[in-house]
Design brief:
Belongs to the GtrA family. It comes from Blastococcus mobilis. InterPro entries: GtrA_CellWall_Glycosyl, GtrA_DPMS_TM. The protein is mainly alpha-helical. It has one domain. Helix content is 79%, strand content 0%. Helix 3 runs antiparallel to helix 4. The N terminus is likely disordered.
């Protein structure tokens, strides 16, 4: 019997995949937050700024996750699955962000914390769905 760590798809592969996913997440989140804050600074409405930042961060994450974190070839089916997943996630993230902005006290850090809460929730959901559905190998 081959030990779990030696099998493809074992604990070691999962841990490496999680670490790569986290690194991609940091890059995607930096793109997302930077775009969001810049768009707000330039006067875009909250919803437009969040939509634009989500598209920029998601596009970055898709390319890096497909090529590096999950190491799979691109296909129309995978791209469609990714768009469906992230479209659904976008609605969830917008809901979490909206609720957070409504309930958090208004301080200089409120917008960033609301973004971080929504991003964290979306990231957890996305990893599970990307691994089990979109980038399943």
């Amino acid at each position: 019997m081959v030990p779990v760590e030696g099998r493809r798809g074992g604990r070691r592969d999962l841990l490496q995949q999680i670490l790569r996913f986290a690194a991609v997440g940091v890059v995607g989140a930096a793109v997302d937050l930077s775009t969001y804050l810049l768009a707000l600074h330039l006067g875009l409405a909250f919803y437009a700024a969040r939509a634009l930042s989500f598209i920029c961060g998601t596009g970055t994450a898709y390319v890096l996750n497909r090529r590096w974190a999950f190491r799979v070839e691109g296909s129309a089916r995978r791209a469609a699955g990714f768009v469906l997943l992230y479209g659904t996630t976008f609605l969830v993230i917008m809901g979490v962000n909206t609720v957070a902005l409504a309930v958090l006290p208004h301080h200089w850090w409120t917008v960033t914390l609301a973004w971080a809460l929504s991003q964290g929730f979306g990231t957890l959901c996305n990893f599970v769905m990307l691994r089990l559905v979109v980038f399943r190998t």
